[in-house]
Amino acid sequence: MKRIPAVMIFLLLVLYGKAENPPSDKDKAVACIKRWEGWHRGKMPYIGYGHRYPNLDIILTLYCK
After folding, report:
1. Rounded distance between C-alpha atoms, residue 34 and residue 44, angstroms
2. 45 contacts: CB under 8 Å, gap ≥ 6
């Protein structure tokens, strides 16, 4: 008789722990980008996550044509 309430309490605690919503795919992607995009070398002109300054020679070549 004492086992039934103990089992019920255990099941309630387990189910309560799994009631959280898992992070969405978007949240996972943002966390991944924020973690790994900062691992660039210092000589590269990165200004943000996945962005960098464009090459000036290419811009001038396209602009002058």
Report:
1. 17
2. 52, 53
Share of the chain above pLDDT 70, in %: 46
What is the secondary structure of 3-65 as a DSSP string? HHHHHHHHHHHHHHHTTSPPPPHHHHHHHHHHHHTT---TTS-EEETTEEPPPHHHHHHHHH-
pTM over 0.90: no
Q: Where are the domains of the chain?
A: 23-65
Cβ-based neighbours of 52, under 8 Å, separated by 6 or more: 44, 45, 46
CA distances from 22 to 5, 17, 25, 33 (A): 29, 12, 9, 18
